[in-house]
Every structure is written in C-alpha cells, then in structure tokens.
Amino acid sequence: MAKKLPKVDVVIVGVGWAGGIIAAELTKQGLNCVGLERGKERKTEDYFMMHDELRYALRYDLMQNLSKETITFRGNEKLRALPMRQYGSFILGEGLGGSGVHWNGQNYRFLPYDFEIRSKTIERYGEKKIPKDMTIQDWGITYDELEPYFDKFEKMAGISGEENPLAGKRSSPYPTPPMKTTPALEKFRKAANNLKLHPYNRPSANLSEPYTNPDGVARAACQYCAYCERFGCEYGAKADPVVTVIPVAKKTGKFEIRTHSNVRRVLKSGNKATGVMYVDTTTGEEIEQPADIVVLTSYVFNNVRLLLQSGIGRPYDPVTGTGVIGKNYAYQVQKGNATGFFEKEEFNTYAGAGALGMVVDDYNGDNFDHSNLNFIHGGSIAISQTGLRPISNNKVPSGTPTWGKEFKANSIKYANRVLSIGGQGASMPFKHHYLDLDPTYKDEFGDPLIRITYDFEEQDRQLAKYLSERCVEIMKEMGADHIDTLDELGPYDITTYQSTHNTGGIIMGADPATSAVNNYLQMWDADNIFVVGATAFAHNSGYNPTGTVGALAYRAAEGILSYKQKGGMLA
Amino acid sequence: MAENSKQQEKNESLSRRKFLKNSGIAVGGLAVGGALGSLLPLKDKTNRDNLEVKNPRVAENYTQALMYFTREQFKMVEVATERIFPADDNGPGAKDLGVAYFIDHQLSGDWGFNAREYMQPPFFKGEKVQGYQGRLRRREIFDIGLRELQNHSLTKYKKNFVDLTEDEQIDILTDFAEDKVKLTTISPSGFFNMLRSSTLEGAYSDPLYSGNRNMDGWKMRNYPGSQMAYTEVIDKEFTVIPPKSLKDHLGS
Fold it and tell me: At what angle do helices B99-107 and B71-84 cross, to 10 degrees?
C-alpha cells in the first residue's frame, strides 16, 4: 500500500525547462507546487571538471541511465521493435534541469507558417500538395497569439541575437546583442550575402554580455569555452533551468523539489486526475502525491508513456488514424549538409559556444516556392562554431581510409581546417509514425517501455537532398578546396547522432477529435491535466525546439492559473 | 625552464584578471556561478618550486599497470592500436600515447560492463538501423575479438599477431574491418570499430584516463585541451595555445 501524502495545488512531473517555467510562474502567484524529478540534484558547482569530452560527450554522464529505462524502435509496423540499448540518434536528459542543462542554447521561434501549416499549404499549393498519409494539421494557435510568450521566454533566458529578416514579427528586440562572430562565421556571412541570401547571427542562450532578467536573476557572459552540448555550463552563462527559473520558484517558498522520485502513474477518478504515484528510488518506497492539478513535463517519451500506462486519453490507432495519444511523432532531417576542407587556412574551431553560428532561413518553412518541389517545408541552414572536440571530430576528405597512416596524417592535417554547413530539416508527421507501449520490453519497475515506429519518407529524402545542395552552394562560395556532402538520406538509423528534437505524441489543436490538448496544453479528456513540452508539436519545424517549448510553457502556466480560479475547459 | 614557468604564471594571473573583467563575474546574482571561484588557478608558486628542487626527476606513473587485460592481450592491443594510429612525423602513435592502458582501464569500469546500457533480454537479431542487440558486454567482446585476431593470424600467417610484420598486421586488421573473417559469436567489424573508436578516445581524451600521455595527442593537432575561456581568441585568426588538462583546473 502506497504511502499517501497531503494534497498540494499542483504536482509537476519532471523539472527541466517546462517544469521549471511552470513552477516559477505558479509559485509566484501563490500556488503550492511539488516537483518530482527522477534524477539527481544539479548545481553550477557540479561542473568543475566539465571540460571532459570522454566523460560527458562519449560516456553520457549527464544523460538518462539506459540500464533502467530506454525506448524501443522499429522502422515500420511489420518489424519487431528492439530496445535502444546504447545511445545514438538522440540523448535523453535526466536530473534537475533535465536536457535544459546540456542543450546548446540555440534558441529559435517557429515560423508563422508552422502554426497554420495545413491551411497555408493548401492556400498556396492546393490540397494535392499534401501526400496521402501526411497528417499535418494546424496547431490551434497562431504565431501572433504565441508571440508574447516567446518574448517572455527570451527575456527570462536573456537570448542574444539580431533580427532575422525572414521570421515572424517581434514585439521587442533581443534582450542582449548577438554573440561575437568568428572568421569562419564571417566567411559564411559573406558567401550567403553574395548568393543573395539573408544571413543572421543565431539567437543564443549563451549570454553575449552579463544580463539581469526580469526576475532579478543575474548571470555572467559566455567565455566561448566550447563545452556546451552534452555539458553543463560552469559559468551559468548558458541559460538553463537551474540558474534561471528554478531558483525563482524556490525563493517563493512554495516550490518543493523531490529528486530521485520517479513517477509511474497518473492517478485518476472519472475524467479527472487525483494525483500521481511515484517511487522514491533511494528507498524503493511507493508514494502517492494527491494534487488538484497534474502537469506532465517529462519529455516527449515519458509524457506519452505515463498517459498510456495510466489509461488516460484515447490511444492513437495507426490503422484507423483515430485516437490521439501517441499520434504525430516527428523528428528532424539533419543529414543534409556540406563539409569543406581548406588547404590554406586554419581556424580556431577548438573554441566556440553551443549556439555560436550564422544562419539563413531562405530555405526554411514556406520562405521559398515549393511548386516544383516534391516536399513541403524546409530547414534552417547554418554554420556552427560549437567547438570541435578532438575525439569526435576527425573529418578527412572522402577517399581517405578510416584508420592507419593516411588517416592519422589527414585527420591531423585537417583538424583545424574543416568547416561544416548543416541543414536542420523540418519533419512532417505521417499516419504510420507514432508512439505506443512496447509489448515485450520493460523498465526497471516492470512497466512497458515506449515504442517508436518511425522511418524517413520520400518527403524527408527530397528535403535532405535539397538542403545538401544548398549547403554545397554556400560552401563553394566560401572557397573550400574540397567538399563532401550527403549522397542519400537512407533509412532512419537510431545508431548515429542526429538531434534530440523528438516531438509529438500529445499534440495541440483546436479539435478534440484530432488533438490531445488545447492551446493551453490542457487535456481535452481530463481538464486538470496539462501536458507541456514538445509533445504538443503537431509537426517539427526546421529549427531547434526549445524556444517554442518555452513559449508554450509560459502559455500553459497562464492557463493553469486561470483554471485554478475558474475551472473548466479553457479553450 | 624556470624562466618559462615564471612567464606562464604571469600570463595566468594576467588572464585571470582579464577573465574576471570580461566575464562580468563581479556582478551580483541569484544563486549562480558557484564554481567560478574554485575554477581559477591558485597561487601555488612556492609549492611547485619546492617540489622541483626536492624531486627533480619525473615522477613514476603508477597508473600504467593492468586492471583487466592479461599481458598477452595488452601486447596485442598495443600493436593493433598502433597500426590504427601509428607514430609518424606528426608525433607519437597509440603505443606511446598510452592507448592500450586507456582501453584496459576503461574495460574495467562502467564502459566495459555496459553498466549504463539496456542489457535486458530477450535478445533478437535486428535490423542494422536498430543498433547493437547482442548479450555480450564490451570486455567479453574484447576477449573474443583478441582471441580471434590471434587465431586468424595463426591460420593465415602461422605466427602470433604481435610477431607479424606491420603489413601483415594491417592485413589481418583489414580482414576484421571488412568482415572477411567468419566468426559466430561476434561481428568482426563491430569489434574492429570498437577498437578504432577506443583508440581515438585513448589518443585524445584527458590524460586523466591514462591515454593522451603528456597531452601529446592534443599537441599534435594544436588542440588546447581544457581552457577556461577563449574570449581573447574567438574572433581572431588561428591561434596556437599550449594545452591544459583537467589537472590544471584542480590547482593545489
């Protein structure tokens, strides 16, 4: 029999960006919140020995321990899904701050086109442009409605940037100026300008200068130390939940964080949640935490898994296309890129910052004409200077063997002579791409793992090829002596890192028949459950997702406060 | 030598001041930046000078002993990784970088046991895109792989792997890399790829892990190792910076 604790206003499952933002906003208004975090406590002081590529980048020290829980994957419904036994395609966060601790800080707003993708695609190209099984739909919110929340997230995080001429309108400029640029980035800018494109400095959560946010949180400037992705920031210069929203929530005295607390079930009575059941992983004890409102902020896979194994919401059926929980899983098309080798120049590519880069959006969203193209949407194209660490970066021109004398000589020769341009392609949902519970494999408690059924489609292959060609054009203009690029996208492969931008599964929308949550991320089928995160994305855009997750979290917080007062469905 | 180290300390204290100025650490704040104070190099000039006088010879490296491999396995790994990453005009190869010690030490810990990976049954053969689905752990794969490397050498050249000529050793490794050896328990190319990737890890990880001896792996490619800040060079032309390791961050 589980131990039952006194009821609280709100229980938050997972304390990363989404959970931290919700906690800060609700506790500021006097609500009592408990945050349940399955991982451990984290603080800036922990990152003392952070410049360790082996430990953090290759042994995944900050990531979820897969021996306890992982996902299973198959390319299509005819295959047997098998567990992701080792990391590859994406890396899952764990611990206070979640993936927000080890993100790169590349902070974008999705395009106005994204939120009304179906309407706008039909408007410009007709309904025939959308392939039969592609299940794109409007998000039930517009860019203009979401703009104030983007603004709020950017001011909280202190995003450094400059106006992107091809993006949605902004109500105010970036809170801090763009980061420094580098000779490599300037080369890209010049080439892009020559090609009549519209380059801009990537919006960055690695502060360009010291900044104090509206909550009174002051942070130091980025030192360009080159250890962002997969690492925590020892300066607090990279906005992460632990140095921004979590201390704000804690200061109210209304936020209790319980680490090592792994939630296994959302408890319900009728069509309302009554709380959650979790395990204190240090003792093994099962504990019941009753609450008026349950907020799920535990990343895409766990949000979906919790609802499915708690029997909440209508599970998605890929045969009929009905049901909503697990629907529209999407990912990203990351492999359209170009690698340039420069014989006469060396670059300080050992230095950098996670979000340091120069971007063009000329081939993103519907910023270009798709009439004669066999795909919709597009991707951002960027040169990044995140810091080339030596174990993972040994690029050699095609034709060089992968080991032995020639490999070693070339990998050293080109160590500081390689620049890459990458396309971050959008990912459209398809009827047969979805998440459900695996029938075979279990986690450490004996609960089923989440199962991904997903593969690249013709849309993705065409998009990857198109983005590669554009990357090559820019790289040529930059003057590379030798350029390597993608020949063919191939099938989706879970073994090679692409991006931790998994989306969908509990998507937002205006219609309860085709979406799981409304535009406050409140569940249509249980009005006191809010599911916050990239789970709400009806498709994935050609950008990193965090900025849009942050905006949606602020929107959801507003919804929860209003629900707490008035109750009922908010939209 | 002494002159150099004095100059270096001067630079360090200069860059410390610059760093404080640039980073804006002087600003007050809420619960952030706690590690900063301890990240700055400490003044340990006196201690260091004393050490040099009392103990002029280079300290023995007591970590160069074996935690997992037998002596024979160790020698094979030393030779095989040297073929993958050989000494040349650029600098030392895998052997002199301590790569075999690195691999030995890694196999004795979490990585060798696949401790943080999902190893629950049932085990099924999957599609290539589904990744590794075996029940064997890395240390077992190394045991089998090295035994088979030896068997293949004996079959093909009637000699132990370590006694072959360099070209013959390369030929044997190529047979593994290209799956030209028939094995039932492990994938020859899977083993080879693990050997290759751990060779690069041993060459380029922080010397803390027993490879990249003397930071020579980093020096070869002008990688500065673990630096606190690049604010002074980030927007400049290519700049060579002498490397630092995590040990340098620890201070005294």
Answer: 120
